[in-house]
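Structure ticket #2291
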Amino acid sequence: MVRIDPVKAKLKLFLASEHGKMSRTATQWCKEFNLVAAINAGMYHKDLITNVGYLRNRLHIQNKRWNSKYKSALAFDPKRRGISPAILIDLDDPDAMKKLSEYNAVVQNLRLVKGNGINVWAKQNKQWSEAAVGIDADGRVFFLFCRSPLAMRDFNEVIKLLGLGVIRMMHVEGGPLASLSIKSPNITLDLAGSYETIIKEDSTNKEQWPIPNVIGVQTE
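Resolution: structure written out below.
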């Protein structure tokens, strides 16, 4: 788990569509762009570049289509002073689009937790390694990674039991593509998922896979 105060550290999108159309592992994204942390920005289409949900990074619109099944959006890089540096909102909120229009970076993903900590997933048998992004009531953003396979309802409950104060959370990737890298003076970690029901039902994967889009953290 990485907790980010977006007042002190900058959240940024790094996209293959803006950087040579080349996917990189999370650790490669960190090294090339001097990031202290990077996590998947979301699942992507068969073109191996385009986010499945809406994605805008300033003037660059990678995917202009809103996915009707995805109910969460993370936004940061505000256009004006006086608003939160980052928000994670429910897209069924009547004011959602108005709020998102005030930010330069917006990425839409599958919702895990809504409102004030409501688990929206029903019980299921499918399990996978998970990469997720959450937010607490104070606006701090969380990069969350779990290599051990869990059903999403159970994953949500585990995060709740940790007492982190996460009130909203979205899925950004699962299985062997789930990635989290941390590069700080005190800790270096390059984490990779493995298990995914039907897709890869084992824990043999040890290496990060190249991914086209990440949410990164810069401190300078």
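Closing remark: The mean pLDDT is 97.
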